[in-house]
């Protein structure tokens, strides 16, 4: 699986988490023990971006990108489709995620970096 990130999205992620930090693209799910009490989500959000350094539970499936290490779990994969695109909106201070057929989330926050 691959993801295309806009220039704004790449620059913002590198600025906020650093080039060597891994990130997880995760559903907001209170029942997942790895996500419980770790969320930084806004109204209308379904996904979150979580920076991490070591292994992060079920988030071991790599999403290919030339500059960043992005991971997800098998649960999220069922929503992603074939092609993922992510952009960053500076005015909203949030990311949007879409696949080939729909916008999946237009208000994704980066955990511990953005606040609604």
Automatic annotation (TrEMBL):
Database matches in Gene3D superfamilies: HesB-like domain (2.60.300.12)
Ranges for domain Core: 1-111
Pfam families tied to this protein: Fe-S_biosyn
Top-level taxon: Bacteria
Protein name as catalogued: Core domain-containing protein
Organism: Enterococcus faecium EnGen0003
The organism's taxonomic lineage, starting at the top: Bacteria, Bacillati, Bacillota, Bacilli, Lactobacillales
